[in-house]
Amino acid sequence: MSESTMKTMNVEYAIIGAGTAGLGAYSKISRKTDSLVMIQDGPYGTTCARVGCMPSKLMITAADYAHHLGSSEFFGVTASGRVDGRKVLERLRRERDNRFVANNIRYVNKIPAHYKLEGRARFIGPGRLRVGESVEVTAKKFILACGSRPAISEVFEPVMSRVLTSDTIFELEDLPRSIAVIGMGVIALELGQALHRLGVETTIYGRSGKINTLTHPDLQQQALDILSTDLNIYPSGQVVSTWEDAEGAWIEYEQSNGQRITKAFDRVLVATGRVSNVDRLGMEHTGVEVNEAGAVTFDPQTMRCSDLPIFIAGDVTDHLPLWHEAFDEGRIAADNALNYPNPVPAKRRPPLMVAFTDPQIATIGQSFRQLQDREIVIGDLPFTSPRHVVWNKVQGRIQVYLDARTGVILGAELLGYAAEHLAHLLALAITHDMTAEQVLLMPVYHPSAEELLRDVLLDAQKKRRSNEADEMTLSSSA
Ligand SMILES: Cc1cc2nc3c(=O)[nH]c(=O)nc-3n(C[C@H](O)[C@H](O)[C@H](O)COP(=O)(O)OP(=O)(O)OC[C@H]3O[C@@H](n4cnc5c(N)ncnc54)[C@H](O)[C@@H]3O)c2cc1C
Ligand SMILES: NC(=O)c1ccc[n+]([C@@H]2O[C@H](COP(=O)([O-])OP(=O)(O)OC[C@H]3O[C@@H](n4cnc5c(N)ncnc54)[C@H](O)[C@@H]3O)[C@@H](O)[C@H]2O)c1
């Protein structure tokens, strides 16, 4: 394209990406100025609604129904269920498209056309972007909100026609007969368990041997043991080769003990993490600092990159790739872009993560690993309350970490049925720097799952008092 046919735009603010973070930034900036553009490559609707949080939870819910039917005998209820894979996937797409994606598109459609530009943006110089092949945008401030994409390693190239990722699995017409799930992170565990419960012969191939979403070794092991009771999991090793023939996609996997396993599958779901789209942005033209791993360095309080008028938000950061964080970061980045060069540092919320497996995995505040150098007491109980017994859901554990001196709740790791709700109560307590004693002032209904939270805090308190008594005995005998 010649310079003369290149369309040019000159604005104050350019937002790259119209996902959760980009739209969060747009909503703030558009209230203050007309001089902005939001550039989107690919379909609108956001990763969360189209191929992330929402379709995965819709699939998990169908799988939960199938699982409950299969286990209802325990309650004296005989039920028979048959999974119709086509209907499961049709319903998933219907709900996703008519509700979650449609809501988002409705919002995007209300954005005036002159604020929106479609095409892939990349920097061609400081303050200058090329969008697609025919548009050049000059802006004073930039918000990088262009998300991430599934990582697929070269070893899967021979079976690419059978490879699925979270970007493609929800578009299947029918459920496959068998699937290899590569990875043991959140996507692999959520979707692997759901597919298994929907009747797909599923094998999960991990790498590290650990469920790293949790950090306490006992919880990691217990999570693996529980999930392995109904799921076929090889936790530790690596895929060494793949090939395809009439039987399907063959996976050759070497376990960490050196033993090799070879098996053919209809499909292969690669869930081995995500890569930030920052690598396609031409950052070398901007002067932004990039660390050894290729990630942009930024200040999490302002989302500012180096000292430049460039801000970053959402999964593109490689840091806390979760929906609520993307939304917060978009808004923090917008506030700081609007106020540039004066920083507006934001108080970040305590970390909160829930994996929607059964049992659920949740982490709140500081992890056990992060607290290793600090004096803490651990409230630690099996995930059992009268309510959990009634539900016949007594697997797992809850750990709450208190500062040994003050009793302030610092963090927690949970593995248990519907842990999401206790996780949110703990998140509230941590947000307000509450002590166990303060939380214990709350009324707790009987029989409720929240009794477990009360009991684990009482356990932690008891340990704290016993530590204090030991210290007093020591000092009086010294
Ligand atoms: C399967 C799955 C399940 C998940 N489940 C949950 C969950 O239960 N709870 C939770 O909190 N989080 C969940 N997440 C994470 C959550 O979806 C993300 O954290 C969130 O969607 C990130 O939003 P974002 O705005 O950073 O990115 P996105 O929504 O991906 O937006 C970025 C946009 O930028 C566009 N883009 C990329 N490059 C360019 C470019 N050069 N120029 C212009 N545009 C560009 C992309 O096409 C994309 O549309 C899940 C993710 C996945 C994949
Ligand atoms: N419920 C939720 O909030 C939810 C659900 C799904 C996804 N997400 C978000 O999406 C992000 C991406 O999820 P993800 O599961 O792709 O990433 P992840 O980082 O959680 O897990 C990737 C896993 O793949 C393993 N791995 C990497 N290379 C491998 C290889 N060659 N062979 C075998 N295993 C390999 C890693 O050890 C890791 O366990 C998550 O970090 C999470 O923030 C959140």
TrEMBL record:
Protein name: Dihydrolipoamide dehydrogenase
Gene Ontology molecular function: any one: dihydrolipoyl dehydrogenase (NADH) activity
Active site: H446 (proton acceptor)
Record PANTHER family: MERCURIC REDUCTASE (PTHR43014), PYRIDINE NUCLEOTIDE-DISULFIDE OXIDOREDUCTASE RCLA-RELATED (PTHR43014:SF4)
Domain (Pyridine nucleotide-disulphide oxidoreductase dimerisation) ranges: 354-453
Disulphide connectivity of cysteines: C48-C53
InterPro entries found in the cross-reference section: FAD/NAD-bd_sf, FAD/NAD-binding_dom, FAD/NAD-linked_Rdtase_dimer_sf, Mn/Fe_SOD_N_sf, Pyr_nuc-diS_OxRdtase, Pyr_nucl-diS_OxRdtase_dimer
Family under the similarity heading: Belongs to the class-I pyridine nucleotide-disulfide oxidoreductase family.
Cofactor note: Binds 1 FAD per subunit.
Cofactor(s) the protein needs: FAD
Gene3D superfamilies the record matches: 3.30.390.30, FAD/NAD(P)-binding domain, Fe,Mn superoxide dismutase (SOD) domain
The enzyme's E.C. designation: 1.8.1.4
Keywords from the named record: FAD, Flavoprotein, NAD, Nucleotide-binding, Oxidoreductase
Ligand binding (FAD): K57, D315
Pfam families attached to this UniProt entry: Pyr_redox_2 (PF07992), Pyr_redox_dim (PF02852)
All residue ranges annotated as the FAD/NAD(P)-binding domain in the record: 13-330
Positions with a binding annotation for NAD(+): G183, M184, G185, V186, I187, A188, L189, E190, G273
